[in-house]
Amino acid sequence: MTHCALSLESVTYRYSSRQAAVNGLDLDLGPGILGLLGPNGAGKSTLMRMLATMTRPSAGRITWNGIDIAREPDALRTSLGYLPQDFGVYPALSAREFLGFLAAVKGLSGAKARDRVDACLSMVGLGDAADRRLGDFSGGMRQRVGIAQALLNDPALLIVDEPTVGLDPEERMRFRHLLTDLAGERLVILSTHIVSDVEASATSIAVMTTGELRFHGTPEQLIARAEGHVWEWTIAPERLAEVRQRFKLCASLRRPDGIRVRVLADHAPDADAQCVAPELEDAYTWLTGAEAH
Ligand SMILES: Nc1ncnc2c1ncn2[C@@H]1O[C@H](COP(=O)(O)OP(=O)(O)OP(=O)(O)O)[C@@H](O)[C@H]1O
């Protein structure tokens, strides 16, 4: 059985002496899919780069199966697959050529490399497109090439940073299913600011804002945080601006009898408002800022 115990102890990262981009994070992770959620600038990419051993924490410690990765980065690197946010491909190469090149960089050669490249391309559903130029691939296909390259060494830890940016809804859905299929015994860390990216697949969720960990637990536990704070009622269309100004508006739907609004609030926002069951998106919004309203 694969060992994949990743532990963060008071992990902090500072780009300068000003505010820490990642501030005192504690997390214990094992097999499954962790959805790392946070708005832009929350510190997700900085954290991902530390986990991928691209940078070291300014303070604190990250261990992989008990080994400090700042001291012995190779202990993790040999088990790591990483798809960075700014992953680029060589447009003139075919998918097979590109992966063959990366396999060689990772020390695979000959028939073993060829078999692994083909296996990885078929795992991400690109078996039929293996000999097409990457320059002709769609955004979603390119991201799948990114996953295929991350899988070359059959990693126990797969880190994917904002993989669905720029994908259309169908590609996005396909990508989510792919990550679910790949999870198995691995630890997959998927960073995103889009809640629906992790809704169906994440076994646990971590939420970061301004460098701090605000939540870590199951999706159900996150949803429970917003219990009693989500309200719906129907208003006359001319009241929409006022409701939007007074409350955190999650959704609005035009109907024949007015506009059905869904807001986050501590107490009933209106005599007609009904308290409804929260969804993950509501809970994330509640946690990351609705309190400010
Ligand atoms: N190279 C850098 N030098 C200085 N500050 C940086 C650098 N990279 C990121 N930051 C700052 O660190 C904080 C965290 O950024 P980070 O990119 O990790 O967040 P993020 O959650 O990944 O957001 P995004 O989704 O926009 O990448 C931000 O305030 C950002 O401005």
TrEMBL record:
<dbReference type="GO" id="GO:0005524">
    <property type="term" value="F:ATP binding"/>
</dbReference>
<comment type="similarity">
    <text>Belongs to the ABC transporter superfamily.</text>
</comment>
<feature type="domain" description="ABC transporter">
    <location>
        <begin position="6"/>
        <end position="235"/>
    </location>
</feature>
<dbReference type="InterPro" id="IPR017871">
    <property type="entry name" value="ABC_transporter-like_CS"/>
</dbReference>
<dbReference type="InterPro" id="IPR003439">
    <property type="entry name" value="ABC_transporter-like_ATP-bd"/>
</dbReference>
<dbReference type="InterPro" id="IPR003593">
    <property type="entry name" value="AAA+_ATPase"/>
</dbReference>
<protein>
    <submittedName>
        <fullName>ABC transporter ATP-binding protein</fullName>
    </submittedName>
</protein>
<dbReference type="Pfam" id="PF00005">
    <property type="entry name" value="ABC_tran"/>
</dbReference>
<keyword id="KW-0547">Nucleotide-binding</keyword>
<keyword id="KW-0067">ATP-binding</keyword>
<dbReference type="InterPro" id="IPR027417">
    <property type="entry name" value="P-loop_NTPase"/>
</dbReference>
<keyword id="KW-0813">Transport</keyword>
